[in-house]
Amino acid sequence: xxxxSETGRCWRLIVIGGGSAAAIQVRQGDVPPQDTLVIGxxxxxxxxxxxxxxxxxxxxELRLSRCQEAPRLGTTGQLRPSAAQxxxxxxxxxxxxxxxxxxxxxxxxxxxxxxxLIHVLNGDGRMSYERAEAVVLATGSTPRIPPPxxxxxxxxxxxxxxxxxxxxxTSRWAGRTVLVVGSGNSAMQVASLVASEADxxxxxxxxYIGMFPTENPDKYSWRAPSQLACELVAKSAMECxxxxxxxxxxxxxxxxxxxxxxxxxxxxxQAQNNQNPLGSRSLSGRCxxxxxxxxxxxxxxxxxxxxxxxxAVVWATGSEPVLPGGPLxxxxxxxxxxxxxxxxxxxxxxxxxxALGACAGQRAVNETTPALVRRRLPLSxxxxxxxVPVDAEVPA
Length: 396
Known about the structure:
Elements: E1 10-11, E2 13-16, H1 20-28, E3 36-40, H2 83-95, E4 100-103, E5 105-112, E6 115-121, E7 127-132, E8 135-137, E9 141-143, H3 148-152, E10 156-157, H4 158-166, E11 177-181, H5 185-194, E12 200-205, H6 225-239, E13 249-261, E14 264-270, E15 293-295, E16 301-307, E17 311-315, E18 319-321, H7 327-330, E19 353-355, H8 379-382
Parallel strand pairs: 1-7, 2-3, 2-8, 3-4, 8-19, 10-17, 11-12, 11-17, 12-13
Antiparallel strand pairs: 5-6, 6-7, 9-18, 13-14, 14-16, 15-16
């Protein structure tokens, strides 16, 4: 059934999302703000749960526009700004951009008569519709939640730790073993956050990332607050169990297998996979907490276990895109990590639908580039040179 937009207008561009990617699109894109409608169920970064947690920025990495100043919250070389300050900056950037901004949720996007019909669920529960010539998805991502059997054992995603910590609620991990599953910055930050109250902290990653730039040239590897966890690992190995030493033991291991069964959590690891500055200090026998059982041939692999009732498990294995529903969005080709497949202009596998930011696999503000929507190309040209077929399957 044909549905007219609420205003009768067909927008040149509708941007779905209200965070930093949406602000970059409006301020740096090729469609004038006055011809753009922004619809976001939340205006800001979505990092409000981090509150006064300082972000890993040293200079102008968080600027949303070359023509707009970022918050001047310190000098170059200092960590800045806080999550709350950056959230306010992003929100103000959108509201002052000249675009029309609506605070509402988009449950579905449809293709209709060569254009797009946007379903808009308003705060009062009323559904309305907007039409556009082009759509940009700037919908961001959300932390991955633990698999069902781990959730049943009480595991939570890493954002829960930040939220509870900001409310001074530490009972989840106080006096307990904390297993942090993940190998990135989020995992390392959680390890530092809970260390003051936990009995022990073990970061279990599927690989060793290393610090930028001495061990890893990737600028998104461990930096800033994450290095606090690295130092805790090194000091724990030297001091855990020594007289007068009361700081929580923190370890980091590259694991082979992780399982929960009959009220017990078990993980295995090998010495050969932990010959790095952190793993070598975390192997069995290095401290009173690291008491593993030798398994396999050669005596170079260990197994450790903890009771579920005495353990808090935090899932920090990355994030996944947050997207509207409906067949059109589900048909978009995806990359192996679940993010939307786009070309250098932000075009997806559906003509007229673009994406940028976290939902398109861009990992940081200074890696996010606006989608260019004025010229459309055939799908075959979009995917030319990629190892993804035109009829790429969409993950369930």
